[in-house]
Amino acid sequence: MIEIDIAQLEEIYNFAIPQKKPMKNNYFLDIPLKDTWLCLPKERLTQTEIALLSSLFLEKQETMIDQHRHPWYQFLVNNQPIKKVTGKYRLLHFSMINNEKMTAKLEWLKAFTNMFDNPIDSFYITDTYGVLIEKKGKNNFSSEQLEGILLTLETDFNCKVSLYLGNFYPYSEKFPQLFSEERTISCQKETQISANQVTVFSQVALHYLTKDSIPDSSIMTYFQAHLLIDPTMKKIIKTLWLHQGNISSTSKELYMHRNTLQYRLEKFKDNTGLSLKNMDDLALSYLITLTQ
Fold first, then answer.
1. Under 8 Å CB-to-CB from 197, ≥6 apart: which residues?
2. What pTM did the predictor assign?
3. CA distance 51 to 269
4. Can you give the pLDDT at residue 217?
5. Which Pfam families match (predicted)?
């Protein structure tokens, strides 16, 4: 917390309300100053002021983790075992996309965690990234349901969050290794190829598992050099891949008439010899778009 004369802040923001305790709601920005809180009505502040005041007074201390209260942090990050843990668990890796507008990170995390029936723990690891640990039960959310939850919270908190949804794994000493790899995947830009905010491994597996071997392939090097794909066609290929080759779903998402899409696919086949209606050719074309 920054040391500053409270009188200075009160002079600048003469509409601030001094309080012994923070308001803790979405209508006020609570600024801690020694043993006092200044509660500023957000409707009187610009977005720039909210972002600046938050970065100066709140964000770093707000997400600072108390390691002793989060044994799963010690387990995942420091590889310290947890006693008497059984069952299967999955990790939900969340990342703040527009961090500059996010002023209530702990409140967002609390609201997100409260949506689950079996949350074991949740915390931030960095200022913009964290995890929620969930135990497998009868009513675990699907990726589609999580999309809806994120959209609801986006409206309530004026923030956009992307989510990498991990698989359920049995508790074991190898869990931290699985966490480490999932964290790597969640932080890669390639996970944002999905049109959705929630990404799962099956959506990124092809590129993730082949990205290191592609540069060593003479065939792929040839395709990269000779099969140049324009931006519009790249978008069509990626969308078609995400919709598993479904023409109707792809044309709907692209706001493109089905006949226009069919024409572009036929033209692409004439130019390249690759039929995007064939899943093998589509997979190859998709990989090429990721490496150009």
1. 147, 150, 151, 160, 161, 162, 163
2. 0.66
3. 50
4. 84
5. HTH_30
